[in-house]
Amino acid sequence: MWPHRRALRHMPRRIKRRAAAALLAVLVLGPSAARAQEIHLASLAGEHLSDADLARGTAIVVVWASWSPRSRDVVERVQPLAGRWGARARVLTVDFEEERQAIESFLGGRTFGVPVFLDTDGTFSKKYAIATLPGLLVLKDGKSLYHGKLPEDPDSVIAAALR
What is the pLDDT of residues 35-55, one digit of tens each? Predict the structure, then answer.
């Protein structure tokens, strides 16, 4: 069995339905429909993130979900990014379509050292076309310089995007 099929088998039905609905919306309405939605996310700590926030300066965003097998080590992968790039960019994470309790349970008291924003309805991920988890998004003044899979060596991708 292909590895992604194993992950799909263990994915909650509501997530599968949302993903199917999102894909159908993009196919029927086109990608511009997802891009038109405004971003308004809250973090675990009560901070807020909007399109206006992302339109100022540089942001490095890691998109993840606790149910994604490839996101299991996301805390260990994000902390070094914050240390290396935190002086040049705002480093943050966005959790894809999960409830606060699931995220807090997954973290089990560990902290990223960066904000964890909740994309409970998938609006952020749809707008920025995040198709794999964990995903990496590099924005400068609201413009996407890179979006795709979080690579094993994200520093080279981030450095190239920020040149």
Answer: 468 999 999 999 999 999 999
The total number of structural domains that make up the chain? 1
pTM as predicted = 0.78
Candidates 96, 97, 78, 89; CA nearest to 138 is: 89
Q: From the CB of residue 16, how many other CB atoms can be counted at a distance below 10 Å?
A: 12
60 touches 158 (CB < 8 A): yes
Angle of helix 154-161 relative to helix 74-85, nearest 10 degrees? 40
What's the DSSP call for residue 71?
A: G
Widest distance between CA atoms in the chain = 44
Q: What is the CATH number of the domain that holds 149?
A: 3.40.30.10
